[in-house]
Amino acid sequence: MTELSPNSKNKIQLTADIGIQEGVYTDLSNEEYHGHKESISRSALMDFSISPYTYWANHINPNRPIKEKTPQMEFGSAFHTIILEPKKFNEIYAVMPPKVLLKDVGRELYDSYKLITQAIEASNKIILSPGEMDVLLDMKIRLNSNKEAMALIEGARIENSFFWQDEHSGLLLKARPDILHENMIVDLKTCSDACPRAFQSAMVLGGYHLQGAMMRDGVEALEGNRINKVINICIETKYPHNMAIYIIDEFAIHEGHMKYKQLCLDLKAARKENNWQDYGVMTIGLPKWAT
Hints:
By secondary structure, the protein is an alpha+beta fold.
């Protein structure tokens, strides 16, 4: 990817050469968005923050293994779809019927069961177990009963993909707000623990504040709309599906902004120098808690 200055006249050519121009895409699938490797997402920058080598290994190495989604990631994607894009749910997912045995139901019903399961397996859809579907529906009921959460979702633009060029590093960045209003950006997150302390930890480790800053900058760069309110709706995947709505404060968003901007500059330098350092050599002592 060619590095450009912020004022380069070849700005549009940069993105055109790799198949996507700067802009807002309303019809990209989640797979197409994440599959576009020439653009830099929050998760890519978080990999680089671990080490440049981690970024190279996960995003550049031509021999890298295919990244498989964890069961938690698959479940989170299913919940996003059933809540935010319900019309697409049956196109993407299929529910396997409860398992039956020949000795319990007889030949006729068992053969019918086998035909149904074989058709589902051949459908190329993502298969959910009856138990997973039950949990999804329970979580949907729980979310629908929360008036504050539903007010944050209704009437919004859903899963729009933003691609823009960072003015300082020249990198092509991307962000995909789950829920976008004129005055707020909202993300829907599934988690095992939605309490404040757990969310704070997840926000730091997962870079949610970077994500909020990037989404805000992407909307402003492409649409000229400065959005200051970044909100996360969190719902636990285990009964009783506790929920929380977190408004990320401006200090956290500012810190995320400063960090992602610096990571972009460092990534630009690593590309230019082809330097993908891992943890390296250092002197190390005891942590504070051990002394």
